Amino acid sequence: MKVSYYPGCSLSGTAIEYSVSLKFVANALGIELEELPDWTCCGSSSAHVTDDTLAISLAARNLTIADSIGQDLMVPCSACFQRLKKAEKELKVRKSVESLNHKYSGKIKIHHAADLIWEKLGEKAISSKLKVSLKSLNPVCYYGCLTTRPPKVTDVKCPEDPQEIDEILKVLGADVRNWSYKTDCCGGNLMLTHPELAKKLVKKLYDMALEAGADCIVVGCPLCHSNLDTRQKEILSDNGAKYDIPIYYFTELMALAFGDLRVENCINRHLTDAKSLLKEKGLL
Questions:
Q1: Is the pTM here over 0.90, yes or no?
Q2: How far is Cα 33 from Cα 266, in angstroms, rounded to an integer?
């Protein structure tokens, strides 16, 4: 399978471990990622709260490049995914955006990475690569709000109860725990403007994950990962609540299950210790 690939700014910097582990997984599954040539920022956060036309234009520029290539587009970052889906809706109405020379045909599809892997490849392809069962892990899967909402933009099948990452991890043997908070907001965009509210939202996710019997949280969004991974010591300092919950990208656990131990270098980058649990479970 050959797809266009839009890494976005985060996967080229703060979320490099997501990028690296995704490429391990893609290689194992036979997905050829063709990075979008001359891609630019999608305008997430800074642009869309400043000027709607600018935000649409930034995302549309990338989308029209993908459209000219004619391959479906894989987007691992949830914020990028939503901005590109929003631009897609605008382009299907307008057919073009002022200052962009290329007109949009609308024949390509935009997929979040987890959606593409599960929907296009599925259980058979994933299980065929399984070398190390994750049966000793008890994760909850956290999708956040940007991958799923609003559904009229994202086109997801189950905006309140997405299942793609759950199903992937189940195939890999993990004892995935049910919880009702998989699409609650983690407050990532509030951390600079309303930090106390953001930390309250994060703390709730920690508490509910533990209540569900989880030993880790698995994500598919760089912003969610950053927020959940970095706030545990802050919350301890603020109110004495101690958390030590590993936060993994779903691609890191996939690579681990596929037997690619190079993923250990990715896990070493996490701020909250994510290695000890895997060693305790005999996975590293």
A1: yes
A2: 19
